[in-house]
Hints:
Helix content: 25-40%
Strand content: 25-35%
Number of helices: 7
CATH topology: Spore Coat Polysaccharide Biosynthesis Protein SpsA, Chain A
Largest sheet: 11 strands, mixed
Number of strands: 13
Number of domains: 1
Distance between the termini: 32 Å
Oligomer: single chain
Order of helices and strands: EHEHEHEEHEEEEEEHHEEH
CATH architecture: Alpha-Beta Complex
Shape: globular
Amino acid sequence: MAQKPVLVIMAAGIGSRYGAGIKQLASVGPSGEIILDYSLYDAREAGFEKVVFIIRKSLEEDFKEIIGVKAEKLMEVRYAFQEIEDLPEGFACPDGRTKPWGTAQAILCAKDVIDGPFAVINADDYYGKTAFRIIYDYLVAHPGKDEGVMECAMAGFVVKNTLSDHGEVTRGICLQDGNMLKEVHETSGIAMREDGRVTGTFEGETVEIDPDGLVSMNMWGFDKRVLDELEAGFVPFLEQAVKTNPLKAEYLLPTAVDAALKAGKLTVEVLPTPDTWFGLTYHEDRDPVAARFAEMVEEGIYPSPLF
């Protein structure tokens, strides 16, 4: 019998751009809810019954008190810990390094507690009900195989629905062939400029971005074998990173997926969602995000309190 899909939530990021406080724990709901509470609510409604939180050990006590206790009312809860010292044999954390090694390494930290097809999300992003439903349904229909090309999926959000009014953001820009992903370009510095154009930076060059195109918000649906692929790519990444950018280089999930795509190891179906993303990239994002949740409660989309 196929394992039911697992939800994996990445919550170990330092949140350096957000300013004071841990952004994953910032209150945005009318009854003190955080963004992650709404993700858990939507995920359970979509069908997920098990969640794995990837956090830093130093956050464990606060995280369990603020999130874990509530999550346990909805799902089976497991934890994995992402630390900068968690490196393959033969590697040591460079002196002065303070940030984790990126989203792909985060998923590797949960390898021992992921036992089936799994979805991945960020802790501080609101994805919307449709996105969780389409990812869950995809994973149920594609539970994974023992061999052959891995069948994976990605929720595709419309670029203009994912921008912040308070600064630039990083997104995985999607290049598609029909509904299949060809490449994903991790593009930084994305914002709408004064002339109405959306631009960002990819591989050191300024690029213009279609505001109606699709981007990755790190909401993926994966075959469990992706974990082996990420593990195989971590050592080559570290060998290069230690030489070129030891303090800030990150092993990013979109970049790792892009490499596996080009190597023919997997396919990624892009599942478009009309939902508007919002999150706490910057401290100034909090008030408009809180206002939107208040509106959704008034519209009857969510109860208050949520739990």
